[in-house]
Amino acid sequence: MNAPLDPIRLQDDAPEIAAAAPAIQESREEARDEAREAPRKRRPKRDVDGWVLLDKPVGMTSTQAVGAVKWLFQAKKAGHAGTLDPLASGCLPIALGEATKTVPFVMDGRKVYRFTVRWGIETDTDDSEGQPTETSDLRPTREAILDLLPAYRGEIEQVPPNYSALKINGERAYDLARDGVEVNLAARTVVIHSLELVDQPDADHAVFEAECGKGTYVRSLARDFGRALGARGHISALRRTRVGTFPEEELIPLAKLREVSEAMDDAPPAFALRPVEIGLESLPALRVSSSDAARLAHGQPIILRGRDAPVLEGPVAITAGGRLIALGEAEAGEIHPKRIFHSGK
Fold it and tell me: Where in this protein does the record put region Disordered (predicted)?
């Protein structure tokens, strides 16, 4: 059963919750060093279009990661497709230039996470960086965990963590929580496409893999598992292995990008730049003539004519002459341009 919140008990548990702290702190310091070093020299900005599939290190914020990649490529514009907490590592797709127009389609894609739950302690942040709030002596059996998981597959209602980037009356929830303001976030509908127990290295830990839809918080899963099992719990390790069509095997560590750039006298690590259109691989593709491409480029719709014209509805990726021209919306045989791409790549 759940133990009462006892200051003496929490002091006893402190070494457990902080077991990973040295490694996390070391990773954070390395990440901070990289973030500080990246902008140390002014570099001329240039037009760079494409995706960098970054393997984000533990300890670095997503904003710092974007800044480091933007500096390495001397890019004028950059953004990312889905925030990763500093505690998390893994897939952080970074869009440069024209690729930023495709970010919403990548963010809407499914994401895969591998995460470790530490039983016995719930924290205010639902991860190992927070302060303990509840404890339990109970440790769940494998059978109990497996019996629980079906309730968290499919469409579920989930309350986001209090320490999240969601806004309440214009302010971030995590800012309010840090200021001691009581945060009450409403439950939201999210989709868990798959959820599996993949390992139990010891009684205190369980490793899971989840494939989730947009808006799912893995930290909330750990919290809710712990409460449902009477064991309390928090995330002690988290890695995102896939975003949309971007797999773990194609990720490139930031250290590798820096190493290549330095070996080439601070030249951009062009080997890591992927085409803009990979952000649209989930969309139907439509090839058009040069005349139709010109109409679309001027904001004018085109009509799909003829018996062999494709039947399309919704967003489409439009190409002409082997290059990406526009994002369009197909409706009743017409294609309306929504975003025009000016890159020749």
Answer: 1-45
| Choice between 206 and 263, residue whose per-residue pLDDT is larger | 206
Q: How far apart are CA 263 and CA 219, in angstroms?
A: 39
Considering the candidates 49, 85, 124, 224, report the single residue annotated as catalytic: 85
Query: Shortest CA distance to 298 belongs to which of 342, 261, 248, 343?
Result: 342
Considering its fold, how many domains does the chain have in total?
Answer: 3
Q: Residue 138: which pLDDT band, with cuts at 50, 70 and 90?
A: very high
DSSP string, 143-174: HHHHHHGGGGSEEEEEPPPSSSS-EETTEEHH
Residue type (1 letter), 275 = P
* pLDDT beyond 60 at 277: yes
Compute the average pLDDT of residues 163-168.
73
Q: Which residue reads 């690729």 in tokens?
A: 99
- Measured CA to CA in angstroms, residue 192 lies from 68, 84, 120, 220 at distances of 32, 18, 25, 12
- Has 108 been annotated as catalytic? no
- Is the distance from CB of 324 to CB of 315 less than 8 angstroms? no
**Whether pLDDT at 17 is above 50:** no
- Averaged pLDDT, 182-187: 79
Q: What's the token pair of residue 51?
A: 């995706």
In a domain, 188, yes or no: yes
Length of the chain: 345
